[in-house]
Amino acid sequence: MAITDWPEEQRPRERLIRHGASILSDAELLAVFLRVGVTGKSAVDLGRDMVAHFGSLNGLFSATLNDFSKINGLGPAKYAQLQAVLELARRSLCEELQAGVALNSPQAVKQYLQLLLSGRAYESFAVLFLDVKNRLIVCEEMFRGTLTHTSVYPREIVKAALAHNAASVILAHNHPSGTPEPSAADQTLTQTLKQALTLIDVRVLDHFVVAGKHVYSFAEHGQL
Q1: Can you give the pLDDT at residue 116?
Q2: CA–CA gap between residue 79 and residue 61 (Å, rounded)
Q3: Using an 8 Å Cβ cutoff, are 81 and 34 in contact?
Q4: pTM above 0.85, yes or no
């Protein structure tokens, strides 16, 4: 049955307008995005298929075009739309961090980093460069690696901090394995970067490890 044949109070779009997006399930939100389903399936059914196929929203958001298109009813047009929505969300959170004080918006920082790093099949190391008021100047993905390893060069981060005239930084990387706890190597690297940046009077405010829905904060665990 098509969603247009459902009682109005059960239709995702109408429910969103009346009660807000937060009450909708993942499949219903995807149905609003998709607008239409495919033969024999409503948009909500197709949304459920998407979540089931990729295992999570993060898995869906990080899917390649080839994997995305394996689901009947999805293709380049919908893939482009989804990537545009995700980029708008990233830019919105980035604006919030640029306009306000990053330390006063830890949840915004975590959400931004999740959108930036979670779901990637390879390790990625990013740095948020902040001004003297702890407002975001720019976020740069500094290094990319493999499934389990990324080579990080302190010299390059020091050079970037000087180029941006940063007063402090927030470090971040992802764990494709899905385990947010930092490794011994992560802890050693954090201290190495902290020492290198101290030499140019740049503070390391935090180091976040992103693993799917989970974000580990070094600062919150007293490891800085």
Answers
A1: 83
A2: 9
A3: no
A4: no
